What does this fold into?
Amino acid sequence: MSGEVNPDSLRVASGTLAQLSGDVDSAPFLGAAEVAAQLVGSSVGSALGESNTASTRAKQVVKARYDQFASLLSLSADTYSDSDAEAAARIAGVPDINSATSGG
It folds into this structure.
């Protein structure tokens, strides 16, 4: 699939990512604590007891990454000049989401 990269398409993509970031806020809460309370003493119950915190953190990281890419695309649209090479370089410079330096 290919598409034309221009300031308008970058702004559309930025808006889509910004909307996805907002959708993360409305994602349902994991709610595993209730099940964990019924499995006291089991390793599964213990893991479930910690999963709400892990789920919340994962949502925060995903939301931050959506926000980061939305900002990069918006900046790229605002500074676009005849090619998408600068936008590509900005996006390529974002570290892997699992790296310690992802900023999320």
Observations:
- The CA atoms of residues 27 and 59 lie 9 Å apart.
